[in-house]
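Quick question, first post here. What does this chain look like in 3D?
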Amino acid sequence: MKKIIVLYLSTKYSNIKNLKNFILNYKKFKSGLNHRLIVCFKNLNSLELKVRKKFLKKLKYEEYIDPSIENDHEWASIKRVSQKFHPNIIFYMNDTSYPIKNNWLKIISSKFKSKRIIGCSASMSSWATNSYFRRLGDNFFVYFYKYIYFNLFVPKFPNPHLRFNGLLFHSSDYLKFIKDKKVKKRIKAYILESGYQGFTNYFKSKKYEIFVVNSDGKLFSEKDWKSSNTYAFKNQDKLIISDHNTRDYLKLNIFKKRKKQKIVWG
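> Answer (accepted):
Ran it through. Tokens below.
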């Protein structure tokens, strides 16, 4: 059996502190499973690349330098990695992520099988519903644009979807989904995550099983995602992979946590 690929994305748009945190926690928390660590470097100049590789020198990893010169976001980078290392099972982590539990990969991968997508967290939140309220910093033109755009392409609340981070999938499945989709703006990336034709809904339409797994190794179907205690609920004690959004939630006071929970779970 081929080793699972753990894909970590390191881009010029992310502070190098994120890479340091990933390295620290990747060493601290044992994966529990032999795997290939692929670090995908994106849009870095030669000096930035040299510095980041220096920090990684004590890790056993393979580098993949994304040939794209534009910011076509994580979706296109994952596509190119999937093509390069196809066929293979891939566990994807974005550049703010790192494991926070021992045996993290063993737990996640033990639940994988054909026609199944596994995530480490999920949400019922809707960009369409949230667009009714103007965000701080958005002028009226931006507010109106987002309102129209999101209501065209995103289901209203509840909008069940896997968060596009800490995801386990087969490269062939991802390539079937992404095809020739172009992602030049962050707003399009949001649509691919949770839109009508987004990642989760695509695989639902193909009759795939969609699960969240928590640190107890328990699988949760859509109706029980909240109870997995992995995102915006209680203290997220069962989360396996941390990212900037899960950490931001933990920093909130009790009243703001309740507000966040309402947005995510209703």
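DSSP finds eleven helices and twelve strands in the chain.
The CA atoms of residues 76 and 255 lie 38 Å apart.
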